[in-house]
Design brief:
heterodimer; A: about 625 residues; alpha/beta; Pyruvate-ferredoxin Oxidoreductase, domain 3; Rossmann fold; 4 domains; 7-stranded mixed sheet; 6-stranded mixed sheet; 20 helices; B: about 350 residues; 8-stranded mixed sheet; 3-stranded antiparallel sheet; about 30% helix; about 20% strand; globular
Chain lengths: ~625, ~350
């Protein structure tokens, strides 16, 4: 058997039972690798359940910095007998299977092409601890200690992590380090350490941080000055408002009174949450909510009101697998169409697509400026993969000179100078009108906000011409939006190929890795990452300049492709979908495979040339 | 009905303490049916705000969808208004109130808007004790869609077309009491003497104040056999007491007889005088209010007046401990923690 040998390039998976406290131990493992200067990408693969079902934690360690998921498990740490059959099967040939050998393993699970490493976790815990909860918790710490020996994690890094983790609860430091040492000794005594796969200190993470996108969104809302948060719990978005609450409670307390410079309300449902957000924004406070696909469905009616009545609204959509309840703890990018066109009638909404925690932070902050500048809903399109997993990211930063863009709001002084205020009067010709907050002026500036049609002075009307004028102005505003949202990121200075790839959000890491693979194989390919909807001219330009454009996304129906076809003057034929919808993050190999397959069936002749050839005949 | 609202007003129109005349509190001409009970409620709201000398622009009017929810355009034209989504006025009012606690919030809803499509939001805004006046213009039917029964229609009540309601009605006042409402009143659109002091007390109340106002629909639900018709309601009214509201700092000029009367001092120092109290009823006792409602209902009577008030009420802002300043007045200085704090946070992610 050829055992895998690798340094700083492998995938390890932990198979646990949920509710046993494994998350913090697994997290300690990932952080130890990260602190050794090696890029890594941890992922939680968890059930929609609180206690007792299998849960996995997977870490891709890659010193080159490829952070997308890679299929195949090199090391499986199996602490869950329930899932052992599946877990053994998922190890790649030559890989390693670390397990609790307190009880002998079922011989039918023994594979010839896998190295088995038994650590008597249960036995050690029974011997060492009397309390049953301690037995359960320390089992996790012990296997991290064993791994330290098996793959050469610097033990002092783990010790430092324990000290940091239990700052303020110093009593817990020594027992945790003791558990780590027990695991370490057990592995050292019984196996040749390190095994073929190991880590080695590098300096490849720079000043990066490791955090989840939801925390970054929550922080973005704190920094952007959100003062009203209304929300209804739903996986995978819940931790956005949790983070907002955590940091606001730390950073937003009025020093004089000890009272809060913010309000958080857990609402009775998503309809109520978005209603509160709209009410607060209407009244001049920056307000947001976070939800997932089912919540967006419920919020649709209100989103149409905010679009038509022109009320700033910030919504963070942490997408999960649909339709309906779908796979609620698995990731997808499948709310693209439902978010872009949420609500009945002609509506469209601004979408922002973060790909990293830093972008979660920045785009959330930008969403508030855009929503107030444009007086319309802005939806930040994150997903479970980005939102609930620790992702390596450049550090967060805030420009202290930055002022919030509160948009076109008239003060009492402004109103005094005016003859008559028209809420829906396009004074500047950009489709964006001036608004007033309630309570501004005793006799001027009051108007009636409504979801019914109205004239430029906010007076109810069923006059078709007035309605058309208003709807056309909203289109003009949409055009203005294109210049205000983030332009796409291009990965080449000049286009150098007839073939292009478009991707966004959490398909980014895997797409970039796939492109590197294809380039290595001699293929030329241009790449563009979409960061916002509406698409600005650079996106249209990229579509025009390439004969075949692969659209990488994680849903069944190629939703971003639909949006591009819908909104851009482009032939659908040349937009080739590259899809993944199984709920697991897309891999580079998958993307590469789909592109390769299409290129070969396409005979590597781009569509336009084929057509040209035909016309010459 | 007329289609043009005359702009002429008597030159010596009386003004309130702030110098505003009633004209400053008017809205546009109502487009509801002539004789609609809702117009009387609009006018009672207008009168209350005028007499209480609340600056018109310091009021926000919020409604849902339906005939009732159209009324906010017909009063307080100098106040911002928001005609939102069917059944969702409470959430919009909650957000608005969170943003600026200094305005007076008047929510207007109907029986369909509250007791059917909006039941969930109604229940939860009660629980949160949001500082607002919540007026239900309750006519027992869906006027805008031609008179279907609503959830507050009494069992056995006959519609204009002759069909009889077979479903149990929802009594919003009892429900609000059960849900912990801190102020509950019921009135009749035809009884201004009762309605105006009730609205004033509701405005002064620091918390959620429900006034369920029976307001006959002259077009679809004013027929014989309907329990929400003018004649029926007038014949079956029973009041917990008479109500008089004396704002803070106003000298009490009315003389009150001894006997069955009670004074309730409100949070802001205003006083509610109640006279001819119903037997066994105490406005500060939730249980007695529920009992009184049940008894009246068993007798086929519509109990009106102040039903219950919690004098110790604390609104949502106090419950969640927000600053006294309106949140919408906070700027970067108070809201943004700055880059140094962010760099420290970054450190926790390494």
């Amino acid at each position: 058997m050829q055992k895998i040998t690798a340094v700083n390039d492998f995938v390890i998976r932990f198979a646990n039972v949920n509710g046993t406290g494994s998350a913090s131990a697994n997290n300690m493992f990932a952080k130890a690798v990260f602190r050794m200067g090696i890029p890594c990408a941890p992922k939680n693969i968890f059930p929609s359940n609180i206690q007792g079902l299998p849960t996995w934690y997977e870490v891709r360690v890659n010193e080159k910095g490829y952070l997308g998921r890679r299929a195949g498990i090199d090391i499986m740490v199996c602490v869950n007998p329930q899932s052992m059959v599946k877990d053994v099967a998922e190890v790649v040939a030559g890989g390693y299977f670390v397990y609790d050998n307190t009880k002998a393993i079922d011989p039918s699970l023994l594979r010839k092409d896998v190295t088995y490493i038994g650590i008597p976790l249960t036995e050690m815990c029974l011997r060492e601890y009397t309390d049953s909860r301690q037995r359960q918790l320390f089992k996790n710490v012990i296997y991290v200690g064993a791994l330290a020996a098996l793959i050469d994690i610097e033990f002092c890094v783990l010790k430092d992590l324990v000290s940091d983790q239990f700052k303020g609860k110093e009593k817990l430091i020594a027992p945790n380090i003791h558990a780590l040492e027990m695991g370490y000794q057990s592995a050292k005594e019984n196996y040749n350490c390190p095994i073929g796969i190991r880590v080695e200190r590098r300096d490849n993470v720079g000043d990066s941080i490791l955090l989840d996108g939801n925390a970054a969104c929550g922080l973005g809302a704190v920094y952007a000055g959100a003062s009203v948060a209304a929300w209804y719990p739903i996986t995978p978005s819940t931790s956005v408002v949790d983070a907002f609450a955590k940091y606001a409670n730390r950073l937003r307390i009025d020093p004089g009174t000890g009272k809060k410079n913010f309000a958080i309300v857990q609402s009775e449902d998503e309809l109520s949450a978005i209603g509160m957000v709209i009410g607060a924004n209407w009244n001049g406070a920056r307000s947001f909510t976070a939800t997932s696909g089912p919540g967006v469905s419920l919020m649709s009616e209100f989103l149409g009101l905010a679009y038509f009545a022109e009320i700033p609204t910030v919504l963070i959509n942490v997408q999960r697998s649909g339709p309906s309840t779908g796979m609620p703890t698995r990731s997808q990018q499948s709310d693209i169409v439902s978010s872009a066109y949420a609500s009945h009638g002609d509506t469209k909404h601004v979408l922002l697509f973060p790909a990293t925690p830093l972008e979660c932070f920045e785009l959330t902050a930008d969403a508030f400026d855009l929503a107030e500048r444009l007086q319309t809903p802005v939806i930040v399109m994150s997903d479970l993969e980005l939102g609930m997993n620790d992702n390596m990211s450049s550090p967060l930063k805030w420009d202290d000179e930055r002022c919030y863009d509160r948009g076109k709001v008239l003060s009492a002084k402004d109103l005094d100078k005016m003859e008559r205020f028209g809420r829906y009067l396009d004074v500047d010709g950009d489709g964006i009108c001036y608004r007033t907050y309630p309570g501004t002026h005793p006799t001027k500036g009051a108007f009636f906000t409504r979801g019914t049609s109205r004239d430029e002075y906010a007076v109810y009307t069923e006059d078709g011409d007035e309605y058309v004028k208003n709807m056309e102005r909203l289109v003009l505003k949409w055009e203005t939006t294109k210049d205000l949202v983030a332009p796409p990121e291009l990965y080449q200075r000049k286009n150098g190929s007839d073939i292009g790839v478009i991707f966004f959000g959490t398909s980014t890491h895997a797409s970039l890795e796939a492109i590197d693979m294809l380039v290595e194989e001699g293929m030329k390919i241009d790449a563009l990452r979409i960061k916002a909807f509406p698409f600005n001219s650079e996106v249209e330009d990229f579509l025009v300049k390439h004969d075949t454009v692969y659209i990488v996304e994680q849903n069944r129906d190629a939703q971003l492709r639909s949006l591009l076809v819908n909104e851009c003057e482009v032939s659908p034929q040349k937009l080739v979908p590259v899809l993944n919808m199984d709920g697991m993050p897309i891999t580079a190999m998958n993307i590469k495979g789909q592109i390769r397959k299409n290129q070969s069936t396409d005979d590597v002749i781009p569509l336009r040339k084929k057509e040209r050839g035909a016309s010459i005949k | 009905m007329s289609y043009i609202k005359p702009s002429f007003r008597h030159p010596d129109l009386p003004s309130n303490d702030l110098g505003y005349t009633k004209k400053d509190y008017e809205g546009v001409l109502s487009t509801l049916c002539a004789g609609c009970g809702h117009d009387s409620i609009s006018s009672a709201i207008l009168q209350s705000c005028f007499e209480m000398s609340i600056e018109p622009h310091k009021i926000a009017k919020i409604s849902g969808i339906g005939c009732s929810s159209k009324t906010p355009t017909y009063f307080l034209g100098n106040s911002h208004g928001f005609n939102s989504v069917h059944g969702r006025m409470p959430s919009v009012a909650t957000g608005a109130n969170l943003a600026n606690r200094e305005l007076t919030y008047i929510g207007v809803s109907g029986d369909g808007d509250t007791a059917s499509i909006g039941m969930g939001q109604f229940a939860h805004v009660v629980r949160r004790n949001l500082n607002m006046v919540y007026i239900v213009m309750n006519n027992g039917c869906y006027g805008l869609t031609k008179g279907q029964d609503s959830a507050t229609a009494d069992i056995g009540s006959k519609s204009k077309a002759g069909s009889v309601n077979i479903y149990e009605p929802i009594d919003l006042a009892s429900l609000a009491l059960e849900l912990g409402a801190s102020f509950v009143g019921r009135s009749f659109s035809g009884d201004k003497h009762q309605l105006i002091p009730l609205i004033k007390a509701a405005i002064s109340h620091p918390g959620f104040a429900l006034i369920d106002v029976v307001s006959p629909c002259v077009t679809f639900n004013n027929n014989a056999g309907s329990t929400k018709a003018y004649d029926y309601v007038r014949d079956h009214l029973d009041a917990t007491s008479t109500v008089d509201f004396v704002p803070m700092k106003k000298e009490i000029v009315t003389s009150y007889q001894d006997g069955s009367s009670k004074e309730v001092t409100m949070h802001d120092g205003s006083v509610i005088h109640l006279q001819k109290l119903a037997e066994g009823w105490d406005p500060l006792d939730r249980e007695s209010a529920l009992n009184a409602l049940h008894t009246a209902r068993n007798k086929g009577e519509i109990l009106t007046g102040l039903l219950y008030m919690d004098a110790e009420s604390q609104g949502l802002h106090d419950m969640i401990e927000t600053v006294n300043k309106p949140l919408n007045s906070l700027a970067e200085k108070e809201l943004c923690p700055g880059n140094q704090a962010l760099q420290n946070i970054n450190e926790s992610f390494r």
